[in-house]
Amino acid sequence: xxxxxxxxxxxxxxxxxxxxxxxxxxxxxxxxxxxxxxxxxxxxxxxxxxxxxxxxxxxxxxxxxxxxxxxxxxxxxxxxxxxxxxxxxxxxxxxxxxxxxxxxxxxxxxxxxxxxxxxxxxxxxxxxxxxxxxxxxxxxxxxxxxxxxxxxxxxxxxxxxxxxxxxxxxxxxxxxxxxxxxxx
Amino acid sequence: xxxxxxxxxxxxxxxxxxxxxxxxxxxxxxxxxxxxxxxxxxxxxxxxxxxxxxxxxxxxxxxxxxxxxxxxxxxxxxxxxxxxxxxxxxxxxxxxxxxxxxxxxxxxxxxxxxxxxxxxxxxxxxxxxxxxxxxxxxxxxxxxxxxxxxxxxxxxxxxxxxxxxxxxxxxxxxxxxxxxxxx
Lengths: 184, 183
Known about the structure:
The complex is a heterodimer. By secondary structure, chain A is an all-alpha fold.
């Protein structure tokens, strides 16, 4: 979490503990911290901004309903991304037919990419490239570098073994570098 | 092959914080691609985290998350904290499943049962006629019922008459039946 967003002295776990004790405002603060992150997490696999936003809202609502099950000894982000991953899988399955159409659109967009030079900075372009990775590779990369999670926590969040996560990250780095054109 | 192995070890050193083995480090120094990979992996965290705020700013500015009112109120009503679990009662579920199975079995039995033949249909119709035909003793039964009603009516009339007589004598008045008065 960036410094600008963590200006509040309370940690995510503190807020989650308060929300668990019955404070909706604390949960709204948590939601404020994570809404855009969830959006970025979901966006690559979903068809539109609206879908990603809806799923982020749905995830937060589900977490709020189940906040009583949160164990404060674990990082809140791990709990959040575990739930997010499960919801995302259900959503992707539900939208299989739609996704097939969207993939073709994505392929078209990808093929257009070289003609359209990115206006964003080089670093931002890296995230854009990361979005074109396989879904699990992107999610592992996001949890590792955006959420700064250790391998164990990523494994819990993605429901995979530690070795599987390391393989995902290795492939993500290799593919990202290839796409960036650093390996010819 | 050694390139693949070296890059895997470079990734491992970044993920687990383990030092790169000597042979891999030596290879990475001599191999341009592996050296570039090591450099790429080394700069990746800072490059990605630097660009994260800009990345997050690209998310559409929608209305902030608000807990729906109904959920909030229902949460407040619960004394055991905001979390809620729904448990299925196994006995009820088993009973429901059994009822469904029995229903399905009966339906299939009826649906797949032998169709009624013409002879059976005729016999059934005949039985139905017998049941619905008015028996011979019905007229006398009606008469008996009517006579009973007549007796009842007479009893009520007598009771009313004696009540009228009592009231006339007691209150010193004359009560006349409306139908007799009109005639």
